[in-house]
Amino acid sequence: MRRALFVVVLLVSLTGRGFAAEIRARVIASGEGTLTVDRGSRQGLRLGMRGTIQALDQDSSGEFEVNMGIGTIRRIDDSSAEMEVDSIGRGFLLSDARQVVFSAEAITPEATKAGPPPAEKPSIPPPKFSQNAKGYREAVFPLGITMIKIPAGPFTVGSPERDGDADEHPAHRIGLDDYWIGRTEVTFDQFDAFCRETGRPLPDDEGFGRGSNPVINVTWNDAMAFCKWLSQKTGMFFRLPSESEWEKAARNLYPWGSAAPNDRLANFNRSAGRPSPVGSFPQGASPCGALDMAGNVWEWTADWYSPTAYREARGSNPTGPVQGTERCVRGGSWRDGAGLIRSANRSSENPASRLNVLGFRLAMSES
Q: What pTM was estimated for this model as a whole?
């Protein structure tokens, strides 16, 4: 992902009013906590505009954009604009930045004062905060997406010696910064809203039903595209969780503890014969209150998979190998037995796969 910066033109999509509905500003330089982008049209960038910073990644299916942070325009001159970087995802450097995407939903009040908004669209309501039954902070975002805040701190990732599989060893202590994890998997209702707004084809539910069922038959790139869309709508930095973040949010032998799984705790071992609506097993909640982290559907994570990752990675906020051929998936599915729905179990899948046992849940960095 480490690539040279490019000096290229600003791409602007225009609405009938002549204002930019979406602006893609190419990065031309990076500094200490700042990025400089090509300014382009005088009707384009304005002070206070907030945008999603993107880098490039690639896999066997080709090259694609990944969200890496959020920034705000603080200075504009005749040929360029400087933005302050508000947040950056773990594992990224500012030199990775390739472009910044500004959309109507990401305009701050400061930008509105500086000129007319890019388009007349409904305002996005602020998140609603509360405390869940486990004592963790929750926030509800558009489409009913509920996120749980996981406080910073160390934890032990992996399985003790003689337990689990070879790729779960050695168990080791790591530190993670604050982050947010989805209370449930992303649903068909939520993903279908994204598809309809962006013109993407709806994923196949294979007759299992849509609505509050977890979305299935989505590739890793599909999941990343949903994260990008939601980030642009909310001005927050939604993404896929790292393997370590996923495991910390799930952590016990099983999310609910050491008791053997049964059909009141999880959808597994073909007991239901299909995915269940998200949140159907509240007794199986993890220590932070996350649901369906065992069974129902496997979940994409951000990391490339390596069977020896735990022998090589140490320190804080690990993000996995820098390249690979398969992405890590976690949690097991409605078809899998007890061994595959353990919190420490690791598996992998080709990022281009579409399966009826595979979906995703969101993570979010502090903005």
A: 0.73
